[in-house]
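Much of what follows relies on a compact textual record of a protein's fold. Each token is a code from a learned vocabulary of local backbone shapes. The record below shows the convention in full.
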Amino acid sequence: MNKYIVLNIVLFSFLNIHQIQGQQELNFNHYMLNSQLFNPAFVGLEENLTISSISNLQWLGFEGNPTTNSILLEAKLKNNLGIGMELISDKIGPTNTNFIAVNASYHLKLNNNSHGLSLGIKLSGNDHNISLNSTSFDDITDPNVRTKDSYFITNIGFGLRYYTDKLYLSFSIPYFFEPKTINKKRHYYLSGGFKKELNDKLLINPNFLIKKASNTPTSIDVSTMLFYEDLFWFGINYGASDKGFISPNDSGGNLSFITGFKLIPALSIGYSFTSQIVNWTGSSNARSHEIYIKFSASNKSVESSDKSLLENKDNGDPN
């Protein structure tokens, strides 16, 4: 069996797993740390510039395995405004997608100062490439050897976020248009969470993320994070489709273990490991590793935001 056939088997299996989970867009275990990925209303929550990165490696050992790398920038502006940027590279087999987005938000305080409403808008561009000429073929006369398609797709999205001192709830459509050239479907995101101090050192922060697209099952992620002051955190995330949420062995699900710590006042590092929960034979190889890095531009920002690393400055969302 040549490499091309093996690669197609891997891709087919991978795509079917994601269809079962009801998702077509990128999936990160650290979604609760970088919510601007799916909702632009979350940018501008910290006092100064922050730079973060998430790298996701799946199915290590397979040629053409899925890999995703991202760099996220975020800053708070005057007049309750926030701005952010996303740079993402996503590769799986012969498919390579480079993505850029600019996010802007406005944070409005309601009658009660502890309650607020954030509005966000996302402008994005997607450079989508499919190239089979980099794949090994037994027959070099196969016309697919020279197959190469490239598309640049622009899009727009929006998001809302309501928050209090203890909880938050958000809704977003990060990509409103459905370009037929890459068969992209519109996704709807609903997320929320709350925080509770167990004592003067420990804080618990449960979160959830629900994703829905047309003609696919609803994807549900539920996580719980525990923090020890601003120095260390760990938690778990469980994800599955609505049809398999109770019985993931039959329909497919995943379990992630997440941990991290503050290396220096301005730098935090996190790691997560994900394993599939399913009876399929190939699930033993469907594991992923994810590395999260966050840098705050100044000590002032660190002092004002470290304790809310996963609280998002009184909005209940860890970012």
In short: The radius of gyration is 20 Å. Confidence is low (pLDDT under 50) at residues 1-23, 137-142, 299-311. The first strand starts at residue 50 and ends at 58. The chain has one domain: 3-305.
